[in-house]
Amino acid sequence: MRVKRIGDLFTISKGKKYDETQLNDSNEMVRYLQIEDLRNDKNIKMVNRIDNGVYVTSNDVLIAWDGANAGTFGYNLTGIIGSTLAVLRPRDSNNYIPYIAKFLRSKSLFLRENCTGATIPHIQKKVLEDIEVPLPSFEQQKEIAYILDKAEAIIDKRKQAIAKLDELVQAVFLDMFGQFSDTNCKIKDVIISLQAGLSTGGETRQKQGSELGVLTTSAVTSGEFIDTAYKVPSEKDIKLNKLVFPTKNSILVSRMNTRELVGASAIIEKDYNDLFIPDRLWKLTLDQRIVNPYYFLFVIQAKKIRDEVSRLSSGTSGSMLNISQEKYLGIDFYLPAKQLQDQFASMIIQIRNTKNKMKLQLQQLESNFQALLQKAFKGELTVKDGVAV
Q: Are the C-beta atoms of residues 294 and 346 closer than 8 Å to each other?
């Protein structure tokens, strides 16, 4: 099998800042390609063609060159690119571009780990150029790319199915309770206590034996509790009489975070005696005689409440905001009859259980895909009649 450097296969050119003052007289519209376009076509943006722009064709490979997404690749796109992207243009037509693009995607983490720049990462051109690509025959490249496309399509369908479950929950809520226009209750009316956690540092590693872990805010930012998101503090930093442990049916809320994540929350589905919460999280213990925890969680995760939390938060920087207990507890929401809450919660739990099973299946699919990638780019993947054998 041939092996060639990226620098021998492609010329690499960075994009330029889009300048509307350089409009072409034809006023022809072209697609303006941004980092998001390397992942999907959800937000297509059209702009006027300009002189001296960096234009790409469907036979080029694109890479995010700067920023947090540096090392993200895309291909089969046509348009003009801005300054955060770069184009890899083939020097000849001897290879199947989708095959090479998929190989480069497997090197994204390597490229990010070798970026320059303390605050804004930048791809190192020399590192990219020196990546070696295994190159079977043109027909084998096409067959491997086809198999990988099929595997990715299965993964995408599973992700879409999981997203549909979230839409189903929204639809059930609207059917039962309508919009969030009415309010008859405040958060303080349905909780028994709000407890703040302990401020302490810790090491990012797994707990050993009887060690305790202090949760990080990322334990709740996804909207579902992640019990592996913790650090291990030293014994001298732990004051046992001040620790707050997550307990079943309590709600954890992030009181301090970015504008998008302040107020993030998750429900606890079992008792934990080896994890405690930090000072940036609150533990809400609900009065379950009047409010169902799953109904309450859905309400405080809704956009209307999250927007209100963001509005009420304060801070000197937009990157880290904080909401006070008083303001949070004073937020209004709609509390229907307990029986209706319980019916809604029952449906939510069924949907969550289905979603969790599908997530496990997705993890297995993604693991299988990574194994397939390894075989494909080591020359160990054999394709027969469009099927990997």
A: no
| C-alpha pair distances (Å), 110 with each of 59, 70, 71, 358 | 24, 11, 8, 29
Residue 97 to residues 17, 156, 281: CA-CA distances in angstroms? 26, 21, 48
Question: What is residue 214's predicted lDDT score, i.e. its pLDDT?
Answer: 96
CA distance 258 to 238: 27
Distance between CA atoms of residues 27 and 50, nearest Å: 8
pLDDT digits (tens, 9 = 90+) for 101-125: 999 999 999 999 999 987 889 999 9
Q: In residues, how long is the chain?
A: 389
For 157, the token pair is 């369908």
Fold identical between 2-135 and 186-323?
yes
Helix ranges (H only) for the chain are 6-9, 97-105, 108-113, 125-129, 138-177, 293-301, 303-312, 325-329, 338-377
Mean pLDDT confidence for 311-318: 78
Q: Which residues contact 304 (CB under 8 A, 6 or more apart)?
A: 180
Domain ranges across the chain:
2-135, 147-182+334-389, 186-323
Q: Which CATH class is domain 186-323?
A: alpha beta
The answer regarding whether domain 2-135 maps to CATH 3.30.950.10 reads no
Query: In the structure encoding, which two tokens stand for residue 364, read together?
Result: 């297995």
